[in-house]
Write a structure and sequence with these properties.
The chain is 35% helix and 15% strand. The chain is an alpha/beta fold. It has a single domain, classed as Aldolase class I (TIM Barrel, Alpha-Beta Barrel), CATH 3.20.20. The chain has a five-stranded parallel β-sheet. Strands 6-7-8 form a three-stranded parallel β-sheet. Strands 1-2 form a two-stranded antiparallel sheet. Strand 6, helix 3 and strand 7 form a beta-alpha-beta unit. Helix 1 packs parallel to helix 8 and helix 2 packs parallel to helix 3. The model has no long low-confidence stretch (mean pLDDT 90).
Amino acid sequence: MLQIGPYSFQSRLLLGTGKFPDAQTQNQAIEISESEILTFAVRKLPLNNPDAPNFLESIDLERFHLLPNTAGAKTAEEAVRIARLAHQSGLCHMIKVEVIGDDRTLLPDPIETLRACEQLLEDGMIVLPYTSDDVVLARRLQELGVHAIMPAGSPIGSGMGLLNPLHLSFIIEQATVPVILDAGIGGPADAALAMELGADGVLLNTAVSGAQDPVKMALAMKYAVMSGRMGFEAGRISKRPYATASSPESGIPV
């Protein structure tokens, strides 16, 4: 069970809704993934024009928990404004805080992220910040009171997987809130590895929407997250530099 603030979820796979080739493919991928949390950029919704089409119209909103994000924000003030707009529109009580500090890598600005989270926590929102794999920043955000930490495995949409599993393991080791790997997943092995390391969940979008068969990839990611979590809970064997016989070495008739 994934617990984020007051909310409980069976699925540990969070799915982004952008960049799918069409609405039908998007809905089929969402359905087969069994994800309960869908994330999207608030700026891409025509909130000022209710008659304009948007992806929410094709989804049964009673079945999903929405996680709007503040993508596009470059300052704390921008992120807070976007988050409050989403909240006041009745879309959510949870918000994924993204404050981008570098246009090329799309890595977050740590100072502005902290500032935005502090303000939104004061508003009483459930706050999930997107961060780099900075161990100290993750701890500071926890001390601030955020409800989950969402470190990047590698740059957004890069498909490079986990570039720094060691730092991710450090973040998980000290975590007092859920750690959800966010960004950089390329294939099922990446998602499984994050879960084997002890992540509480995985958020991905491009790995599914950009796949040759998005629906089949969504299914693969569902099983990858599940198997990785089971592997973590089962407790893998320790790595050893030399072989260890799997057959008994004593009590064998000669």
